[in-house]
Amino acid sequence: MSEPITPTISTRICTHMNDDHAEAVLLYAKTFGNTPEATAAQMVAIDPQGMDLSAQIDDTTRPLRIEFDRPLKDAEDAHHTLIEMLKQVRQK
């Protein structure tokens, strides 16, 4: 059984995504956050309903909330959902 998405798990996921998958986080901001002009983005938090990003647009940092299409069950579900979202972006 996977771990529930607690604040500690959220921090772990965000750190991993920002350190190892910055390009994917930027693609989430551009596509799902409707900010194609973003030049950088960071994942700030994730919970069962969605994720909070911080997007860099010109000289401004803008907060973004991206809702998931369904509530996530746990950290493993978050992992699979983020991968599926990235696949959707790359297929376009």
TrEMBL record:
Domain of life, per lineage: Bacteria
**InterPro entries noted in UniProt:** DUF2470, Haem_oxidase_HugZ-like_sf
Q: Which residues form the DUF2470 domain?
A: 10-85
Pfam families from the xrefs? DUF2470
The entry's protein name is DUF2470 domain-containing protein
